[in-house]
Amino acid sequence: MNAVLSIEDLSIDYLAETTVHAVRDVSLTLERGEILGLAGESGCGKSTLAYAITRLLKPPARITGGRVLFSSREGYDIDLSALTGDDLRAFRWDKIAMVFQGAMNSLNPVLRISEQLEDVFITHRPELGKADRRERCGELLELVGVDRDRLRAYPHELSGGMRQRVMIAMALALEPQVLIMDEPTTALDVVVQREILREITRLRSELGFAVVFITHDLPLLLEISDRIAVMRAGLIVELDDALTLYTKPKHPYTKRLLSSFPSLTGERGSFVRSGELALDETDQEAL
Ligand SMILES: Nc1ncnc2c1ncn2[C@@H]1O[C@H](COP(=O)(O)OP(=O)(O)OP(=O)(O)O)[C@@H](O)[C@H]1O
């Protein structure tokens, strides 16, 4: 096994009026270069887990047990819970980057795309000269399928899909080894969503990063994930490769989750892996 991320017995509570056990004893490994889907109904703890991995949890959340270990491809391990201050800031973006659902709305409306992308390099790669920085930003935009002349644009001049692509470019800027994506395409229409998903799977093959992809949309996960973890009430109740989970689900909750998506009862198109953009009949019905 070649894990890039090992989550060991992780437990997280929200110390609100009543204590919520949002994540309970979760153990999970993310293999180098794989797409791991995390599925489960609203409130089961998916985002809490994502925020814990990226060390973005805020009070009243508290990690009550366990740890998250990052194993760099250079051969050293980092215990994420032990990182603080500058080390933590350097680690985030550099080794683990994230794209959240509302990410496209977090672009600064008064700054051009170029300035916002360049900022990542100014902060994390200060040794890069201005010309190299510009060139790198252009390359990044093209990587995610946006023309480099859009660097001059302001966010409002781009569509939602393009803005989300810019956020993905930003997340990939420092060539992270892990990408955490929490509902990254949920706010977009189905066609744009699919184009972006295909881009993510292509980039993962090209650049070799691993992805934790979080969504309540199980059909989508079945298409893009290598393995899928099903979460319920803070627990991982089933974890298997996508095909086995789909054809031979073991846990009653997984079975229920699968049967709650009518589109899964028909033939699923494997648009993402095959690269076919056309929607199949099942998709048309789902629309
Ligand atoms: N700030 C908070 N204070 C108290 N409880 C919280 C807080 N944030 C989340 N929770 C609770 O923690 C549990 C897990 O929430 P979380 O947002 O991680 O679930 P989720 O699976 O990501 O849901 P969704 O798909 O709706 O985003 C839920 O019961 C939720 O109500």
Automatic annotation (TrEMBL):
It is found in: Cell membrane. Its main location: membrane. Residues 5-258 form the ABC transporter domain. Keywords: ATP-binding, Cell inner membrane, Cell membrane, Membrane, Nucleotide-binding, Translocase, Transport. GO terms for molecular function: ATP binding. It is a peripheral membrane protein. CDD domains: ABC_NikE_OppD_transporters. PROSITE patterns: ABC_TRANSPORTER_1 (PS00211), ABC_TRANSPORTER_2 (PS50893). Belongs to the ABC transporter superfamily. This is Peptide/nickel transport system ATP-binding protein. It comes from Kribbella aluminosa.
